[in-house]
Amino acid sequence: MSGGSSCSCCLTSNRPPPLSLFSAMIRAVSRRLFGPLLLLGFVQVALTRRFEVKAGNNTCLLAEFSANFSVSYETIDKKGATVLFSLPDDAKVNPSSNCNNMTAPLLVVSFGNDHSLSMNFSNHGASYKMESLTIACNESDGGLFPNASSPGLLVKTSSSVEISAKVNTTYSCMSDSTVHMENVNVTLSKVRIEAFPPNDDFSKNETICHADVTPTVPTTTLVPTLTPTTPPPSIPVRGKYNVTINNGTCLLAEMGLQLNVTYTTPDNKIAVKVFNIQPGMTISNGNCSSDRAFLQLIDQSTTLNFLFVVNTTTNKFYLKELNVSTSLNLSTKSKEFTAENTNLTYLQTTLGKSYLCLSKQMLKVNQNFSINAFELHVQPFKVDNAKYGTAEECQMDKDDMLIPIIVGAALAGLVLIVLIAYLIGRKRSHAGYQTI
């Protein structure tokens, strides 16, 4: 884009508002006697930012949005790593942003250590659209990209962003929308954008994105049948997946994982595929900081990403984001399946302690994907000497312990009642005889 027009840019920001050894032994023994009975990674909550591009006194572009990023890069040890981060507080409009004679606005948002996000727009007379989205990451930033093998600028561009609206209309999309590029994913949410806005503010008329529109099902539509493709697999093997950086373990995780994928067949039937993650064939990696911990599991054609974050208000950690990418290897409309959720609140636990759930848990990501987690034990923060802290049990395990306690108490009460009745009976029988 040409930078010939004089340009001044402004930025405003809006912030939305002891597990005892005895009890563990009891559960372990009971499960062996009576039959067999996840994990996941996103950063701080992304805040909505407002950006404005002006030429003189005329505004050519207004944009409000929050953004999350997932970037994979090569490390010195050749293992590779993935980092997840949000558009931070220091994000600001870069001086290279310009209105290009009020015909093709360019917004460049700079943040951190020489990172940037760019949006190119075009004018089509009665409408406007985003032509491309570009992310530039400075891998020389050791705080964000530790042990990068080739420090430098990583630049990725996508021209498949579906953001467009009529002139004098605001494009609005509160739902998450992810732009997939090689090694990089950019997730935009709470988006309000308008090119050439009147009165230097958003128009009252809005174009709502498809994701925000609740689909309506015609009454004549037949309900699709649910077709299981394979019999359910056995209970998954429990795997051990730890994250170690700087010669120290920052995340401990053990669990058996079973994935449930719902998809559409070519003949428009709904089918389900259930399969297990195989620990012996799974590669794990990740990274940690003081308030976020990322775990990635790669089992052949399946990749699982888990992001844990810290709630500084409650002093607890929780699973914030989970996403999956897998090849179904079936007769489907789309051979590749992806799903994600960036607003989870699973596995909440006090910092310095571990989360333990020996019972089967279902972690629902969306209507098409969920994970069954078995014998889950995880601690993503404040790990000392590569050992779990005191475990906080899940409610299901507490309920499992409550049942035998209630049964035992009931049996003890019954024995006591029988004993009391027996003693009363003996006393009465003796009272019926007189000494001669």
Notable characteristics:
mainly beta, Porin, 2 domains, nine-stranded mixed β-sheet, eight-stranded mixed β-sheet, 3 helices, 29 strands, 13% helix
Annotate the secondary structure layout:
Elements: E1 8-13, H1 21-34, E2 49-55, E3 58-73, E4 81-86, E5 92-93, H2 100-103, E6 106-111, E7 115-123, E8 127-138, E9 153-158, E10 164-166, E11 170-173, E12 177-181, E13 184-195, E14 206-208, E15 226-228, E16 239-240, E17 243-245, E18 248-264, E19 270-276, E20 282-288, E21 292-299, E22 302-311, E23 316-327, E24 336-341, E25 346-350, E26 354-357, E27 361-366, E28 369-379, E29 391-393, H3 395-431
Parallel strand pairs: 11-14, 15-19, 26-29
Antiparallel strand pairs: 1-2, 2-3, 3-4, 3-13, 5-6, 6-7, 7-8, 8-9, 8-10, 11-13, 12-13, 16-18, 17-18, 18-19, 18-28, 20-21, 21-22, 22-23, 23-24, 23-25, 26-28, 27-28
